[in-house]
Structures are given as C-alpha cells and as structure tokens.
Amino acid sequence: MSELTRISAPEGVAPAAQYTHVVLGTGRFVAVSGQLALDEDGKVVGEGDAAVQARQVFENLRRCLAAAGATFDDVVKLTFFVTDVAHMAAIRAARAEHIPDDRLPAASAVQVAALVRPEFLMEIEAFAVVAP
Question: Would you list the DSSP string of the chain?
C-alpha cells in the first residue's frame, strides 16, 4: 500500500461528507476502466436493481485492482456515472462495504443520459496509487 495523504477540507473550500477533496500519493499509478454490472461470463447482474448492480460493480473493481496488485486502500479517485442520481445511495452503501468513511477517496458523480446498454444503471472507474 502506498502512503496516501487525504485533505478533507482545504482552506477556503466547504467540507465534503461523501468524499475527500484532495488525495496525494507517491507510487505506481493504476487506472481501472469504468466497470459495469457484469458477471465473469459477461451477463448483466441486477437488471433494474441499483443495489445489486452497485455490489457487482464494486466486486469487479476489487478484482481489477487486485490484478494490478492494488486494493481499495490504494484508491485515490472514483468517478460515478449514473443514469439517475437516486442510485447514489446504493453506490454509497456498496462503497462502504469496501472503503471506510475515514479513508474516502476523491470522487465525482455525473448523471448521464445513457450508458452503453439500457440495462446498466451505473458505471464506476477508479484511480489508485500503489507503493513502488
């Protein structure tokens, strides 16, 4: 695991409850492409159910990070693409299973008109920094 420094409330910036404003790290950069709610056979998991999809997406992120020698402890940034911001509650719940509130990465959430297929409710990408 790399040494990460989190700055939750930089001077002059309102504090954030659901993410960290700034995360500094030194090491090997890992970019994980946006993950969807697909199982290992490429079948959609949880069609129409944001909570099930979020859990599958975070499991896929975990597996991708592991393939790069990283864990959620190394994640410095998450980007959430959602078809409805109402899905953020399910995403936060799934994230909490992997990342404790005192180690939240930087994050952005974007509501989009559509994802690659209509059955997907979210896509999440991750950036991590792993100790050299």
Answer: ---EEEESS-TTS---SSS-SEEEE-SEEEEEEEE-SB-TTS-B-STT-HHHHHHHHHHHHHHHHHHTT--GGGEEEEEEEESSGGGHHHHHHHHHTTS-GGGPPEEEEEE-S--SSTT--EEEEEEEEE--
**Could you read off the pLDDT tens digit of each residue along the chain, which spans 132 residues?**
567 888 888 999 998 888 988 988 889 999 999 999 999 999 999 999 999 999 999 999 999 999 999 999 999 999 999 999 999 999 999 999 999 999 999 999 999 999 999 999 999 999 999 988
Q: Which residue has the tokens 């399910």?
A: 90
**What is the C-alpha to C-alpha distance for residues 88 and 132, in angstroms, rounded to an integer?**
33
Encoding tokens for residue 40? Answer: 């290992």
What is the pTM (predicted TM-score) of this model?
A: 0.92
